[in-house]
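Exercise 3.2. Students should predict the tertiary structure of the chain below and write it as structure tokens, then compare their answer with the key that follows.

Predict this chain's 3D structure.
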Amino acid sequence: MGRRKRGRPANPNPHGTNSGYCRGCRCEPCKEAARTYGIEYRNRLRNSPTPLRVHGTLDGYNTYGCRCDECYEAMQAYNFERSLSPRNIAARWALRASETPAERFERQLSEIL
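Answer key:
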């Protein structure tokens, strides 16, 4: 029987832990541990003060839950850029092609008001 190498853990893949999941184990206890860790980590970030380095970024808005003017404007800019993607433009044109002139007028009027 060979000797264990120095510095290596006795159990290289502990089941039922986030560490086990990170090392590639996909058994149910490891998946549940990783899921729980992720939820706790996100809650910890949301309940901590937002670092100054992330103000005005999507990270500040999404990860830290910051709703300051700079973070809100960053999210609006991101959503605007996404709305201009070719996939969304094609979907909007398909929707508009199916509209009657009266429906189009009502939609345009509601966008203005």
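Discussion points: Residues 35 and 41 are 10 Å apart (CA to CA). The chain has two domains: 14-48, 55-113.
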